[in-house]
Each structure stands twice: as C-alpha cells, then as structure tokens.
Amino acid sequence: MEVVTVTEDADSFTCNAYLALGERDVLVDAGAMPGVEDVVSEHTDSLDAVVLTHQHGDHVQELDAVLDAFDADLYAYADHPRRTDELADGDTVAIGDESFEVVHTPGHADDHVSLISDSTIFSGDVVVHDDGAFDYGSFGRTDRPGQSREVEIESIERILDRLPSSVEYMYAGHGGEFHGDVTDVIETALERAEKREPKYPEE
Hints:
The chain has 203 residues and is α/β, with parallel strands linked by helices. The chain has one domain: 4-Layer Sandwich (Metallo-beta-lactamase, Chain A), CATH 3.60.15.10. 22% of the residues lie in helices and 25% in strands. The protein is built from five helices and 14 strands. The chain has helices at 36-41, 57-60, 63-69, 149-162, 182-194, and strands spanning 2-5, 18-21, 26-28, 49-51, 73-76, 85-86, 92-95, 98-104, 113-116, 120-124, 127-128, 138-139, 169-172, 178-179. The strands form three sheets. It has a six-stranded mixed sheet with strand order 1-2-3-4-5-6, with no helix packed on it. The protein has a six-stranded mixed sheet with strand order 7-8-9-10-13-14. A two-stranded antiparallel ribbon has the order 11-12. A hairpin with an 8-residue loop joins strand 8 (98-104) and strand 9 (113-116). Helix 4 (149-162) runs antiparallel to helix 5. The termini are far apart.
C-alpha cells in the first residue's frame, strides 16, 4: 500500500492528510491546505472515500473541497452533514489494500478514532511520533475545553491493547511518519502522558 502525504507542501497550519493508494483509494483526513484536492488528483482519478480521524478544523477545513471534487463516501464517528457512513468502535474499513479496525480514542477530541491494520496505524492526534513537545512518542494536547488527559491515557492504552505486534508503519496527524517499532513509540508516548505534566509548560 502506497501512502502519500498530500499536505506535505502546505504553507499554512494543517494536519497531515494521507492518501492511501491501492484497491481502494482513500484519503485519511482532508486537512486545511487550500488546493489539497488538486494534489489528490495528481495521484488518482477517483477517490473512493474520505475517513476522518476527528473533526477539528485542521483536519476538515478542506473537506468540502475534496468531496466536491470527487464522488467519495465520507466516514466519520461524529455526525457531519455529508457523512455517508458512521464509524463505531470495532468497525472495519477498507483503506488502500488493507482492512483497518476502528478504535474510538477520545481525550484530544470526543469523536477521535484511530485506524489499525496488521501493518499500519493512522493515529490522528491521539499519539504521534514527533511534534514540538517530544520526539519519539508524543500525545495530543488535552489542555483545551472538552479535552481530558485521563481519557487520553485510557485511549492510548486501548490502542496498545489492540495493536498487533506486526504494525510497523505509523501515520499521525502531525509530525513525521514512522517506520519501525511502533509499539515502543506508543508506549513512550503513554509514559509521558502518564506524568500528567503540561505538554507545553510555557502556555
């Protein structure tokens, strides 16, 4: 399965939007980069679906533009005017060439889901490889209204409970992609989250 970060050249703040190419071409998150639909069209003539990890603005700002450009289904946990398929914990969804389990992972956002196959995790913002706070294992911020560090910790634990040992590719909502011991990265993120210290002490 080929995965392309279609927001890689963004000049403004956006999440990483990933185009998974294979039997089923799927965009994981739409991002906030104007023109993202044009980048998608450079890699595929047809987009089967968009799957949302959650509906924060940096993940969905350009969603309408993508859906307008392609006759694609929209998979989301929370309600959305253009949702065609509701995601629930334990569901499976075909992305690229693989089948992914939907894992509800709130804490950073109530509607957050992570997507796990035998080889790959799309982790959204709940856990990332690197960001401005930590390298090699970080977690989504939980200091804003409606967020919870305790719930976030439970979600990271849930990921580890359901993560096959064969997973070696990690595509997170921010930071770089990672290839290697994904379990160790996520365990490191959990240890840091469990300290319950401010992620960004200066804020």
